[in-house]
Amino acid sequence: MTYLAEIDVMTRREILDPQGKAVKLGLHNLHMDAIDNVRIGKHITLEVEAETEQQARETVDAACRQLLANLIMEEYSFTLKAA
Question: Which CATH code fits 2-82?
Fold first, then answer.
C-alpha cells in the first residue's frame, strides 16, 4: 500500500532563527506590526510503499532522524495517510 507523509521540520525554539528574524523585520517594514515570532522551516512530502501503516510510520521516522532533520538543531513532526 502507498502512504503519503507530510513532514514539518522546524528549528528548535531555543535556537536563533536568522531567516525568521529577517522575515519578521520585512513584515514590520510593511507595517504588519501585529506579526511576531516568525520561524522558518521545511515542509516535505513523500510517498512510502509499506505493507502496514506502522511500517510506513517507522520508515518515515527513520528518514527524518537519519537524513531530513538535524536533530541537534531541529524538531520534526509528520502525518501519514493512505495515498
Answer: 3.30.1280.10
